[in-house]
Amino acid sequence: MLRDELPKIITDKLPGPKASKVIEDRKKYIPNAIGCMYPVVINRAEGAIVEDVDGNKFLDFIGGVGVLNIGYSHPEVIEVVKAQSEKYFHAMFNTMTHGGYVELAKKLCSLAPVRGKEKKAYFANSGAEADENAVKIAKAYTKRPNIIVFSGAFHGRTHYTMAMTSKKAYAKGMGPLADGVFRAKFPYYYRTPKDIKEEDYLNYYMSSIYDVFEECADPSTIAAIVVEPLQGEGGFIPAPIEWVMAIRELCDKYGILLIADEVQSGFWRTGRMYCSDYWKEVGVEPDILTSAKSIAAGIPLSAIIASKEIMDSVEPGVIGGTFGGNPLACSAALKVIEIMQRDNFAKRSIEIGDIVKRRYKEMQDKYGIIGDIRGIGAMVGIEFVKDKKTKEPAPDLTKSIILECANNGLLVEGAGTYNNVIRFLAPLVISDEQLNVGLDIIEKAIKKSAS
């Protein structure tokens, strides 16, 4: 079966002849702004293996940028989606009830680590929609107009989430952006200014929030603080637990809601269903949680979960939408949760992450271009620098490593404020053999690029 195979390039060059024709048509008919640096035209895929139209086989460490934690084409998910498709494709939840929506909401309310004895959930189509809706709910509940986000954050490309997202390359030419969005420093410990002592890191990063209160918006006007428990696009930077505890305390002090953006870090990627489950273990819970990407094995779906009190503060008509909670997506999501719980994806995520971090550490000891290795569970980032002492970012080197990997049958993707991080998001169904073959390809690419 394809899911058990290893990467193998059979064409003389990439892309192959069939893929080249499709890519040429892509250039002709698809906007250039939707970039793609990988020479792959997918034909079929299973598990963590992608076969292109020319028969080349690639090992995928990208996983649809966190969408495919359960892997490509899981047979049990296919079966439930087929069964649902024979009943009905669509039932707009604003006009009629379908059981899958209710059952999925019930399941997520029982599992999501958000505050409140009674919880409610509803569905949108994408991570950006979920994040924007979470802010709408926070504003409805608090009756306040502003929010705080962080450096390195990525929350989407809608008009409002472009303002929330830190990297303004994603909003070039789109101004003026939404107002009432203020930014503080995310605790990127590896790049904390040298003159700050380690024992002062927490105060340094918390002070930037108080700077927002002083210079931008009084805390009485802040509806929510939005946090990625483990930043994705920002460079796979975990939020230190002591910082999260301080944020929760600050929110409680000023009546601000804490929103956990778990779009990329959710669904057992970090060794828990949600990364904020780790928060709960130390007595900290978000008020609102957003979930998307791997929730439905690749069918568009996102979720917003909060307490009954917070959810029911929203006026009728403010939230909802045509396709949110599509029956096919809900059936897939229910099966994904069942499989991941049954097959102990939490344990497997930790095992994969341990292997990756151990191999990366060995590479760091060999090569002078690896500055930092970080992550939680199987969400791991490796940061490349020109010099370990100066920590000068090495974006060109990182790009060359990514392309070298692709030419040898491994798909990896970059990240980071300085475009010098490679993220690990391989499907959690990957075998140990596939994982180690992929890590071998990465090391060979690093060795070649570093020489």
Q: Concise description?
A:
The protein has 451 residues and is of the alpha/beta class.
Average pLDDT confidence is: 97
CATH fold topology of the largest domain: Aspartate Aminotransferase, domain 2
> Could you say which overall geometry the principal axes of the C-alpha atoms support?
globular
Number of helices: 14
CATH architecture assignment of the largest domain? 3-Layer(aba) Sandwich
Unreliable parts = none
Task: Let me know the number of strands.
Answer: 17
Note down, in words, how this protein is organized.
The structure is a single chain. With 451 residues, the chain is α/β, with parallel strands linked by helices. The protein folds into 2 domains: 2-60 and 344-450, Aspartate Aminotransferase, domain 1 (Alpha-Beta Complex); 79-342, Aspartate Aminotransferase, domain 2. The protein is built from 14 helices and 17 strands. It has helices at residues 17-29, 63-66, 75-85, 99-111, 127-142, 159-164, 201-215, 241-254, 276-281, 308-311, 327-342, 345-366, 395-407, 432-450; strands at 42-46, 49-52, 57-60, 119-124, 146-150, 181-184, 222-227, 230-231, 237-238, 257-261, 288-291, 302-307, 370-376, 379-384, 410-411, 413-415, 421-424. It has a 7-stranded mixed β-sheet, sandwiched between helices. Strands 1-2-3-15 form a 4-stranded mixed β-sheet. β1 (42-46) and β2 (49-52) form a beta hairpin. The longest helix is centred in the last third of the chain and has 22 residues, at 345-366. 50% of the residues are buried.
